[in-house]
Amino acid sequence: MIVLAGTIGAGKSSLAKALGEHLGTQVFYESVDNNPVLDLYYKDPKKYAFLLQIYFLNKRFESIKAAYRVNNNVLDRSIFEDELFLTLNYKNGNVSKTELEIYQELLANMMEELDNMPKKAPDLLVYIDVSFETMLARIQARGRDYEQIDNNPELKAYYQQVHSEYPGWYDAYKVSPKLRINGDELDFVNNSSDLKTVLESIDAELLKLGTQFVENQKDSTD
Predict the structure, then answer these.
(1) What is the average pLDDT across 154-178?
(2) Dist. CA 212–CA 17, nearest whole Å
(3) Element at 144 (helix H, strand E)
(4) Residue 11: Cβ within 10 Å count
(5) How far apart are CA 169 and CA 26, in angstroms?
(6) Could you tell me the pTM of the whole model?
(7) In the prediction, which pLDDT does 212 show?
(8) What residue ranges do the domains of the chain occupy?
(9) Which of 33, 39, 76, 222 is catalytic?
C-alpha cells in the first residue's frame, strides 16, 4: 500500500489517480465531495470542528482497513495525518480539551485494531511538499466555494497554520518508509513530463524496498 500525504491542495488526489493507473491498482480517495460536514465546518469551525474530525476519522479508518485487506493499492490521505487537524483545531479553540482527549482515545483504539490486521503498515508514504503559494493556487483552481479565500479572508491564516504543521509531521512520521516529492519543482498536476519523473521516483523507491508492487509490474510485462 502506498499512502499519500500533504497539505490541503498539495495534489494528493491527482497523484493518487495517476499512481493507480500507472500501477494498475485500486485507489481509496479521501471523503471530501460527499462530505456532509465539511462546508459547515468552513462556515462555523467552532461548532463543527469536532464533528468533522470524527467524520473524517471514521471514513479514514474504513478506508485503511479496506486497503490493508487488498494487496497493492493507493490511499489518498490516511488516518496517520488525522490528528494533525484535530490538534490544530484544539490550538485554535475550536475543540475542547475533553473533545481532544476523547478523540485521542478513539484514535488509539483504532490504531490498536489496525495492529491486528494481516498488513501492519504501508509499504511507502509519499509526502507532497508544496509552498504556501502553490497550496493557495491549487485550492483556488479546484474551485470549491467554501474553500475560497475570496469568500472568507480568515481562511488564509488557517491555511498558513495547516501548511506550517506539515514539515514537523513528516519529520516525526515513523510508521513506514517515506519519500518526499517537491511539488513546486515537479508540477505533476499540470505537466506530464513532471508526472513521469514523479512516477519514476516512486518506482525506484518501491524497487529499492522490494515491494510486491514491483513483482506485479514484472508479471504484467512478461
Answers:
(1) 95
(2) 19
(3) none
(4) 26
(5) 26
(6) 0.90
(7) 66
(8) 2-221
(9) 76
